[in-house]
Amino acid sequence: MKNLAMIIPLALCLLPMNVYADSAPERASLSRLNEEISLLNIVIKEAQAQSESNPYHRFNYTKLRSDLEKVRQGIDAHLNEEDRHPKEFEPIGGEYAEYVN
Questions:
Q1: Range 28-66 burial, b when 16+ CB lie within 10 A, else e
Q2: How far, in Å, are 2, 3, 53, 72, 84 from residue 34 at the CA level?
Q3: pTM attached to this predicted model
Q4: Which of 72, 83, 96, 98 is most buried by its number of CB atoms within 10 A?
Q5: Mean of the pLDDT values across residues 13-42?
Q6: Helix 23-50 and helix 2-21, axial crossing angle in degrees, nearest 10
Q7: Confidence label for 92 from pLDDT (cuts 50, 70 and 90)
């Protein structure tokens, strides 16, 4: 029982260290994800330049870039925010096909 009384406070002291241990790898992955989003914008520009003009059906590259920017901003907010309270962001659209009548 005496050992248990010593182990519990020690375990509680170590708990925050375990919580923050995943922080650096997660931050690195999120930073890398933002870099990938930047690279995607280059590919999107290439695809848009190669797209054929179809008067009835086309892909909305502007919406796609806007949605990716919202994702990038959300990641940036998470990485740079010291206040960890939930934030509200605009939802992304997810629909990029445009049908013209």
A1: eeeeeebeeeeeeeeebeeeeeeeeeeeeebeebebbbe
A2: 50, 47, 30, 6, 19
A3: 0.64
A4: 72
A5: 76
A6: 20
A7: confident
